[in-house]
Design a protein that fits this description.
It is globular, with a radius of gyration of 13 Å. The model has no long low-confidence stretch (mean pLDDT 96). α2 packs antiparallel against α3. It has three helices and five strands. Helices cover 39% and strands 9% of the residues. The chain has one domain. The strands form two sheets. Strands 3-4-5 form a three-stranded antiparallel β-sheet. A two-stranded antiparallel ribbon has the order 1-2. It is mainly alpha-helical. The chain binds iron/sulfur cluster.
């Protein structure tokens, strides 16, 4: 597949995810993953329950199409260590999803 084709696929999937979130998909926004034990538990669930299923990734990851603020800290994808700016993509291995900079999930990390 060409790079352009891959980019288009990611754009389409990003749009599909945006629609799901806009339509009110209930995701596990809280509790946020604030300890390494909590991060590991969510990662394990993503591996075991979500696999390649995009909707389950969104639910377990606690995705929102807007930034969540926790204790005065904004947690947008844009500032997360897993965000690839030019590709608008989350490279957390268990997620690997195209995202928008203002979206958020509970695995946000700097
Ligand atoms: S891990 Fe980071 S970049 Fe990936 S969806 Fe969550 S907040 Fe966004």
């Amino acid at each position: 597949m060409s790079d352009i084709g891959a980019t288009r696929d990611e754009d389409n999937l990003r749009e599909e995810i945006a629609q799901k979130l806009k339509a009110g998909l209930k995701t596990e926004v809280f509790p946020r993953a604030e300890t390494s034990a909590a991060v590991n538990a969510i990662i394990m669930r993503l591996r075991e329950e979500a696999g390649a299923n995009v909707e389950k990734k969104l639910v377990i990851g606690g995705f929102t199409d807007h930034t969540i603020e926790v204790e005065d800290i904004e947690q947008p994808c844009e500032t997360c260590m897993y965000y690839l700016v030019h590709r608008k993509f989350c490279e957390l291995p268990e997620l690997m999803l195209p995202v928008e900079p203002e979206w958020s999930c509970r695995l946000w990390r700097i």
